[in-house]
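Quick question, first post here. What does this chain look like in 3D?
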Amino acid sequence: MKKLSLTARNVIFLVLALALGIAVVLMQAPESLKETITKSIDSMTGKPSYGTAMQSGGPAMAALGVLLFCLVLWITEALPFHITGLLALIFLTLLKVGKYTDIIAMGFGNDIVVFFIGVLALTAFITKSGLGKRISAVILSITGNNARMIILGFLVAGSMLSMWITDMAVAAMLMPLARAILVEEGCEPKKSNFGKALMIAVAWGALIGGIATPAGCGSNPIALQFLASMAGIKLSFVDWMIYGVPSALLILPFAWLVLLLFFPPEMKHLKITREALKQELKNMPPMSSEEKITLFLFLLTVALWLFTPLLEKVIGMTIAISMPVLLTACLFFLPGMSKTRWKDIESEIDWAGILLIVSGLSLGTLLYKTGAAEWLAVIMLGKIGSVPVFFQLFLVTLGVCLLKVVFSSNTVTATILIPLIIGLGKSLQMDVTAITLAAGLTSSLAFILVTTTPTNVIPFNAGYFSIKDMAKAGLVL
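> Answer (accepted):
Ran it through. Tokens below.
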């Protein structure tokens, strides 16, 4: 039987997505959906959650149709993720779910867009200045030449770095260092257990640290924004860290133990001695002025994030989460601050990811505003309201983990699931903050499939582990 070409396959899935989406739009709204919309009361205002224009269920069905269209294309990857997201904005307008200018403003007019651009710019400066490699070398000199400790060292290094810069950039920094060690040791790709464990540690460390702060992963600020716009709950940078840092610290030792369990290193110590590792660090050229400036501005950004509540009291105004990183990103371009030019930074910014985020914010907001998110959430997870809070969090986390296998993007996962989770929490009078953060943290932990995030693909491309290797260890974690 002749195999379908990639183009033919994509056309088939595109037609299927359109057909399923149209079918949902044309369906009459179920009575349970109408009941959810008419009976839902906003816990903050005591007024109906949805306006009279939504009570027919028509806008909700239209939003669900667009969601299904996007789901098919996101799962099959028949179109680039961001193109699918932009099409959603057009269809939501044509189906009169909202006004075009309002739909655009929900995404492109969002503070999170500026935050994401600022973080990516900061990441690019750290990478191009050489500061990232120097920090990695310092950490490696501390771990010594014990094979097991080096695996732990890469997990810790990745986690520490990805708290502040994107997980993908951290994986790109650490992968060459890990590969150099493996080549020096003569580790054979796909056969060496040490090679498998070390390269998977590059990916996992970056992913684990990414949940610790809002700057670590694209899905984190999405969760914060949905909490603010849908539940009226504003969390600061530090508020997120109160949940994120302990979660990351809890996962790290388990990740290390899982890697040692599945891939016990074939050697106890590397050929290179601890002293040689320290000597390599000493042999590095002194910190350049650009590295020093980058380090100063990086620490300034972190300090501004950490002390935002105090600064707000001092200056008497609200400081948006994007303001610190936007300020420091601009300072890099002052005369004499950096040799890196805007052209270099522009090439490092993931514009497709930004388009996906803004279109996802618009879609998620409209799913919530039409009542579709609450109705879907009650259908999918409505029974968990009767169990203790701990089990609620466990079930939400488990559900997101299972659904994450389907989606090939942290942002897509957060965009689709978080509005549903918030809708569920408000409907069942649950702790909205707790279950939303559980979903937000979990949506970026892509431990199972290599293809779920570029952070996994970077070390995978080095060739030391297979898709099966990551999957079997990731399922246990």
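The chain has a mean pLDDT of 81.
Residues 9-109+351-445 form one domain.
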